[in-house]
Amino acid sequence: MDNEKEKNSCQICGKTFSTSSYRDIHMRTHTGEKPYSCDVCGKSFSHSNSRDDHIKTHTGEKPYSCNICEKSFTTAQSKDRHMRTHTGEQPYSCDVCGKSFTTAQNKDTHMRTHTGVKPYSCEICGKSFTKAQSKDTHMRTHTGLKPYSCNVCSKSFSRVDNRDTHLRTHTGEKPYSCEICGQTFSQLGSKDQHMRTHTGEKPYSCEICGKSFSQLGSKDKHMRTHTGEKPYSCEICGKSFSQSGDKDIHMRTHTREKPYSCEICGKSFSQSQHKDSHMRTHTGEKPYSCEICGKSFSQLGSKDQHVRTHTGEKPYSCEICCKSFSEKGSRERHMRIHTGEKPYSCSVCGKSFTQLSSRNRHAKTHEVHTSTNNIDISDNNIDISDNNIDISDNNIDISDNNIVNPEFEQVFIKEEDKTNISQVKTENVEIQVEEEDLVKKYWEEFTSDLP
């Protein structure tokens, strides 16, 4: 018997098997051999029964049914896993953090969040994955293959789980329930993510800065702040973004779409968060408080910026000169020093500026300040109206920028000190003008065209 086991032992890892056929199947885990291919999509498998189970995803055959909710499955194993959603059984536990899972595969995949191992690599772009299934799904982003179709609306999907989730938009089914608050979900992943709002668990850590996240997708997005990767590009202007949601929001700058409206004043917004922030101008709500001084803010971003006045943190760095800034907008304005970009133009003369505030200050140089030109100083009999000055007692008539006095050839006004125009003297009268600055202003306007 021992000789038989030794004969059927794996020469690589030493594992023994009852038959040589089982040993040969096991060897494929070392060699990577997948001799069984799907005739529909070409996917390969190391076991014939795995290939047969996969074929059912194309034919729609689901011979295994749940005794509780009557949901059907293509494999008995899938049905057994599903049953645990009703029983709550999670027999597989992580040796590091103690988290439990319904399947051994999910536990093994979770372990890689602790070890950082990503054993599956894309042959085209080299991207690595913790799961073989994730790599296979990723490959379809290169091939464009969408082998899974909805039998209701015929929409196609690159992943079977996306197809199954989509089907629930037709059925309204939400089979996953939170054991704490009872909220239901159409996806198991959504329920698991929701559970972390109760437990506070953040199992995904950034390998560079150590920041933790409750969702793998959030960690992947965060990683782009270190790598600078921007995989989502605008089809109109070519601008790139690190997140697909940011690209979708940007597209509205081209389409002018503003789908979010304020229920109180009707103002529209391109982003839901902008609408939510605007609503606080009506309610006065300030839900974000500084943990250091207690000051409250209506927007989370404003609170975060304020906190940096305490911590001195400057997380936004210039890629060219490495200067750091506490606000993203300050860094973007600084970058224009290097690029020479001047996006703000004067509508009157066309002069361009790097900052909006500079453009606004410049625009005021074009403004014409006008005011009422009627001054009545009754004690001195001065009447200024329609740019004509009549000083009746002194026989001075200023009209059309000409000065005429029948008794005097000229009236001389001292101009050596223009800030102190104080007196107009004649032989018969001396007029003390108390409103020096005001008279100066109008006098300069009236005499500006004189030779």
> Strand order within the widest sheet?
25-26-27-28-29
Number of strands: 31
Q: Could you state the oligomeric state of the chains shown?
A: single chain
The fraction of residues assigned to DSSP E strands is 15-25%
Q: Biggest sheet, open or closed, and with what strands and sense? A: 5 strands, antiparallel
Please tell me about this protein's structure:
By secondary structure, the protein is α+β, with helices and mostly antiparallel strands. The strands form 14 sheets. It has a five-stranded antiparallel beta sheet, with no helix packed on it. The chain has a two-stranded antiparallel sheet with strand order 1-2. The protein has a domain at 375-447. 38% of the residues lie in helices and 16% in strands. It is elongated, with a radius of gyration of 39 Å. Residues 369-435 have low confidence and may be disordered. A hairpin with a 2-residue loop joins strand 28 and strand 29. The protein has 15 helices and 31 strands.
